[in-house]
């Protein structure tokens, strides 16, 4: 550690040291206004020798002889100038209006001109990332890269964000793209969400620790050829992040300050009906709960006659809300009126503040940037908050004319209190439904007693005075509040990511680069669950700790030789080695059977001793040798070939060595031919490559447990799952071609890519017969493919001295198909809802993710068949396809309008095609919660008038104006006649009560043997939307107005994120309210994650 700290300190000290006896120097200025440009990289072509311009745009280099200097800076066109014996070389740089000469960072941290790339990438600038001050960079990528889909968990700054590139690339082991920061692979992963019936916390993933304010740019490597050098880490693409380095806008140390803040509120409220309160159908209310025919239950309290609805009911078919006085379940009299905003009242107004201060400097010997960012976040869900501190140090030091050293260090300290939870319990669980008549203040007052204990049920003897007056349904909602407001779940993480890169120019054309990095995370969680009752009633409460440490140790070595073979042909060959070791330490301990003393949070307080606990250590090793050959012909034809040979410890010997080749080519038509003047630039490209996807560590191992029988030891397979020593790596073979064109001096252009891939040896877990002794086994089960188109259209429709309008449309289409599965497999089950009521399959010939279930029974003419009871019949003899969870199209439209010092950015993104599953919607309709359950409830809502025969119980319709049946029976107006035909083929005329119609047709349980009338087709919805994702308006104060204040680059901004939908096919819910980062879970749990939000805020940026 001491040596590493010295590595950090020495460059900072030496950067400011004076340098003498330089052989060549000069000044770099801007073409537009003649101002000096600090932080320009000045390198000698063919060598690693270089310098950075200082605050005055000046540089010096110790070179002699004839050389070519390369001047490059972010936002400017790269310039090459021959020294021609001069000792002073002054240059001016043009601002880059296109990416023609843009230098991008590719695989293995190798910088290349984008025009030489034979594969598709997307470059995202710092300005595009930070325009709306997001808490993580991934949330800023919506719609900005064709073929890249973002799935942010609706839990705010502490919740994971998923990234998907070019569709689904693994049926059973889809992962997140590889994250590479300043050349070093770091930890990311998927959200580690709890199961349905567990504590429901919305988990995080590693990318949340990458501070957007420290990012210089992001390059997204999409295809196999682009990422083949990363081998088995790159099946799902690579996100290459370059962080900001040092520069100064003035002589000496420069300071950049960024301040932002926003508020976030619930953006989508379920379309609840607001007319009827709790209760079942009339017959159930009266027979089972003693209610009258309107749903009122009458009783006497303190000698006074009172009434109340059936609070025990999850359904909302009770009395109509009429403003009458009701004896509530907390013992208070209240008006029985609609609480139109009770869903929003459950949430709060969230807030986020971000403050960044960065110190930077650049001299001819190097540069540094030191920054600190403070994030404070409070989400919309009650009880939680986040505090995050991020430190970043980025240094570059020219040790000698031939040696440069780059040192980068990131440290993140984060504290999360009561991270948000999924709302399964409230939307997908009948024990969590609350009524449109419920006041949130009642729940907030009753989740705990005045003595600080958990709420007391109606039939408990613990606290007669404070117990609930009735048996209420929404007890899980009370539990939700107890967990979030009474209990404490505190997480503390410390993440340290240092790296050092040494470049050595051995001789002209021969360079050696060595890099080492560490990603270490220490995660600690402390759980304090309060005592729910007095100790005299029994031990309760719990205490637990979790300690997880992970360490990524990374290193690579790259030797590169460049040679001009002829006047027109240049060759560069590189060989290298890369290795990574991952180590995970897990430890947990918790009390058992309650605490011996109320709220004594210690393992020593465990009622049952000793406290329970576990520890484990896991490791993963990967290494690989690779080679790269680059050929350039006459500055218009570029060819690259790569080859990687890799080993991974996650598979058994014999199957753990892989070879990943790649080849690509770029042919610049505009340099090879004299194209029409209107064509500014034209390039064709093509690429082919191979990448892989191995299983997680250890799961391929064949594991046995030990036992004994009559003293004789024996081994048997582990019950949780059996490995497979013959398991192979998933391998993706991908081909792509592309065409890029720009016109009218770069005023317009397009970039189109077609890709096609095949992923072989798909890995998944299959169930096994019970006789084997293990519940499942891993297998390679088949092949799948994707093909698609990615298109970017961009241009400047209007450009004048004061006003400009820039537009970019990104569009992507992806089609997927399962080609084959292993013998004996008709399909793979990816998800199973409610005991087989609905399946998500991967079936040969279809895109993975097809939705299958049981549909209504139909006659030969396609009419729905209605049974004698008046309810639809379900055909359980066959499964029917209802859709697919993969979308067909996605993209975004970005418009930027600039008028003098004002800038307005508007981003709209869209997703089209595909379906989502929302059990929330199905259950809510059957429970009478949603507006779509209003039809038929009374005459105003189209209800059929009928009376119930006192003898037969049959419902018989009557005409308008009839108040009584022939025997004086009361006439009701809440009848519905299901549209269809009887089993005999006649038009159905049987009347059923509206509450029965909804409860029997939209509820839990539409599987064979259930005897229900429910089809889960009613839980499947089209997923099409167009969303206003971002709007930002900024104003940069003219520098002349600030000259006396000695501050520069002052920009004031207002912004909004996730503002509203122009259109969405799913009504009453937000299609982005899914759970997790997995492609299946996201689409099959809409409405169960957390409420979606919109954010509005502002920012201030300035420098001095």
TrEMBL record:
Per the UniProt entry, what are the Gene Ontology biological process annotations, in alphabetical order? siderophore transmembrane transport
> Where does it live in the cell?
Cell outer membrane
Give the record's GO CC terms. cell outer membrane
- Membrane-crossing ranges are none
Family matches, as Pfam families: CarbopepD_reg_2 (PF13715), Plug (PF07715)
Transcription regulation recorded as keyword: no
**Residue ranges of domain TonB-dependent receptor plug in the record:** 115-238
Endpoints of the signal sequence: 1-21
The UniProt GO MF terms for this protein read: siderophore uptake transmembrane transporter activity
The UniProt entry, under PANTHER family, shows: HEMOGLOBIN AND HEMOGLOBIN-HAPTOGLOBIN-BINDING PROTEIN 1-RELATED, TONB-DEPENDENT OUTER MEMBRANE RECEPTOR
Q: Which family does it belong to?
A: Belongs to the TonB-dependent receptor family.
Recorded protein name is TonB-linked outer membrane protein, SusC/RagA family
Its taxonomic path starts at:
Bacteria, Pseudomonadati, Bacteroidota, Cytophagia, Cytophagales
């Amino acid at each position: 550690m001491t040596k590493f700290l010295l590595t950090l300190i020495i460059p900072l000290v030496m950067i400011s040291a004076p340098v003498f006896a330089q052989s060549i120097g000069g000044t770099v200025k801007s073409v537009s206004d003649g101002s000096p440009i600090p932080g320009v990289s000045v390198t000698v072509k063919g060598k690693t020798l270089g310098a950075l311009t200082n605050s005055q745009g000046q540089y010096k280099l110790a070179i002699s002889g004839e050389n070519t200097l390369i001047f490059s800076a972010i936002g400017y066109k790269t310039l090459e100038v021959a020294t021609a014996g001069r000792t002073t070389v002054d240059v001016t740089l043009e601002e880059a209006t296109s990416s023609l000469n843009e230098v991008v960072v590719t695989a293995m941290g190798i910088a290349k001109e984008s025009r030489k790339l034979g594969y598709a990438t997307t470059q995202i600038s710092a300005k595009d990332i930070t325009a709306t001050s997001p808490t993580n960079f991934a949330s800023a990528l919506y719609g900005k890269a064709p073929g890249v889909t973002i799935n942010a968990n609706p839990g705010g700054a502490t919740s994971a964000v998923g990234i998907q590139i070019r569709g689904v690339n693994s049926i059973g082991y889809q992962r997140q793209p590889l994250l590479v920061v300043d050349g070093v692979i770091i930890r990311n992963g998927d959200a580690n969400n709890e199961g349905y019936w567990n504590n429901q916390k919305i988990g995080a993933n590693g990318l949340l620790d990458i501070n957007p304010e420290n990012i210089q740019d992001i390059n997204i490597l999409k295809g196999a050829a682009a990422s083949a050098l990363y081998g088995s880490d790159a099946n799902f693409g690579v996100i290459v992040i370059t962080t900001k380095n040092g520069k100064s806008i003035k002589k000496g140390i420069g300071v950049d300050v960024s301040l932002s803040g926003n508020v976030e509120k619930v953006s989508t409220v379920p379309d609840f009906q607001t007319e009827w309160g709790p209760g079942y159908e009339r017959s159930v209310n009266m027979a089972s709960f003693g209610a009258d025919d309107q749903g009122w239950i009458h009783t006497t309290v303190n000698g006074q006659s009172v009434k109340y609805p059936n609070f025990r009911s999850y359904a909302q078919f009770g009395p109509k809300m009429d403003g009458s006085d009701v004896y509530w379940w907390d013992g208070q009299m209240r008006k029985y009126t609609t609480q139109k905003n009770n869903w929003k009242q459950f949430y709060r107004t969230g807030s986020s503040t971000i403050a960044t201060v960065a110190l930077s400097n650049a001299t001819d010997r190097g540069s540094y940037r030191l920054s600190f960012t403070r994030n404070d976040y409070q989400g919309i869900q009650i009880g939680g908050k986040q505090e995050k501190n991020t430190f970043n140090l980025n240094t570059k030091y020219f040790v000698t004319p031939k040696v440069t050293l780059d040192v980068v260090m990131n440290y993140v300290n984060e504290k999360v209190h009561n991270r948000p939870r999924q709302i399964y319990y409230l939307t997908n669980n009948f024990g969590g439904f609350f009524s449109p008549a419920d006041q949130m203040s009642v729940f907030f007052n009753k989740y705990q007693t005045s003595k600080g204990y958990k709420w007391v049920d109606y039939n408990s003897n613990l606290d007669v005075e404070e117990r609930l007056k009735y048996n209420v349904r929404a007890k899980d909602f009370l539990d939700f509040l107890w967990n979030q407001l009474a209990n404490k779940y505190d997480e503390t993480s410390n993440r340290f990511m240092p790296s050092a890169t040494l470049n050595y120019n051995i001789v002209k054309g021969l360079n050696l680069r060595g890099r080492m990095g560490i990603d270490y995370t220490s995660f600690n969680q402390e759980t304090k669950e309060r005592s729910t009752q007095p100790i005299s009633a029994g031990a309760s409460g719990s205490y637990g700790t979790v300690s997880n440490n992970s360490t990524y140790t990374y290193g690579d070595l790259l030797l590169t030789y460049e040679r001009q073979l002829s006047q027109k042909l240049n060759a560069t060959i590189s060989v290298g080695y890369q290795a990574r070791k991952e180590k995970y330490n897990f430890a947990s301990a918790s009390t058992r059977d309650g605490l011996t003393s109320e709220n004594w949070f210690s393992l020593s307080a465990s009622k049952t001793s000793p406290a329970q606990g576990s520890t484990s250590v896991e490791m993963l090793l990967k290494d690989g040798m690779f080679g790269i050959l680059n050929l350039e012909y006459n500055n218009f034809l570029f060819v690259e070939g790569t080859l990687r040979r890799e080993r991974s410890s996650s598979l058994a010997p014999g199957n753990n060595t892989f070879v990943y080749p790649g080849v690509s080519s770029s042919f610049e038509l505009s340099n090879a031919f004299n194209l029409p003047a209107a064509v500014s630039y034209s390039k064709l490209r093509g690429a082919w490559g191979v990448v892989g996807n191995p299983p997680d560590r250890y799961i391929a191992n064949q594991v046995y447990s030990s036992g004994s029988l009559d003293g004789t030891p024996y081994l048997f397979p582990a019950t949780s799952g059996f490995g497979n020593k013959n398991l192979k790596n998933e391998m993706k073979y991908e081909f792509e071609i592309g065409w890029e064109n720009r016109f009218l001096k770069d005023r317009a252009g397009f970039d189109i890519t077609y890709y096609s891939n095949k992923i072989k040896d798909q890995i998944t877990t299959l169930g096994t017969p019970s006789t084997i002794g293990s519940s499942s086994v891993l297998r390679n089960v088949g092949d799948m493919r994707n093909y698609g188109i990615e298109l970017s259209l961009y241009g400047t429709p209007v450009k004048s001295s004061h006003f400009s309008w820039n537009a970019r449309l990104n569009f992507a289409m992806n089609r997927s198909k399962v080609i084959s599965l292993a013998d004996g497999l008709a399909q793979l089950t990816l998800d199973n809802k409610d005991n087989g009521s609905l399946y998500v399959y991967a079936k040969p010939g279809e895109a993975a993710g097809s939705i299958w279930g049981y549909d209504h029974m139909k006659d030969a003419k396609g009419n729905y068949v209605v049974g004698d009871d008046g309810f639809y019949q379900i055909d359980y003899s066959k499964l029917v396809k209802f859709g697919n969870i993969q979308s067909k199209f996605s993209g975004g439209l970005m418009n930027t309008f600039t008028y003098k010092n004002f800038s307005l950015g508007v981003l709209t993104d869209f997703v089209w095609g595909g379906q989502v599953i929302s059990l929330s919607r199905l259950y809510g309709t059957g429970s009478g919660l949603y507006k779509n359950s209003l039809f038929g409830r009374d005459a105003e809502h189209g209800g059929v008038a009928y009376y119930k025969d006192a003898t037969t119980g049959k419902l018989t319709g009557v005409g308008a104006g009839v108040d009584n049946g022939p025997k004086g029976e009361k006439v009701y107006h809440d009848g519905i006649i299901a549209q269809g035909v009887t089993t005999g083929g006649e038009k159905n005329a049987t009347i059923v009560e509206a509450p029965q119609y909804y409860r029997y047709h939209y509820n839990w349980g539409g599987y064979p043997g259930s005897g229900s009338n429910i089809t889960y087709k009613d839980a499947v919805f089209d997923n099409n939307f167009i969303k206003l994702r971002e709007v930002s308006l900024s104003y940069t104060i003219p520098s002349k107005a600030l000259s006396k204040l000695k501050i520069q680059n002052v920009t004031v901004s207002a912004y909004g994120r996730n503002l509203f939908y122009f259109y969405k096919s799913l009504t009453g819910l937000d299609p982005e309210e899914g759970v997790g980062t997995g492609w299946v879970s996201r689409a099959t749990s809409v409405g169960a994650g957390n409420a979606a939000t919109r954010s509005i805020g502002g920012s201030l940026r300035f420098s001095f």
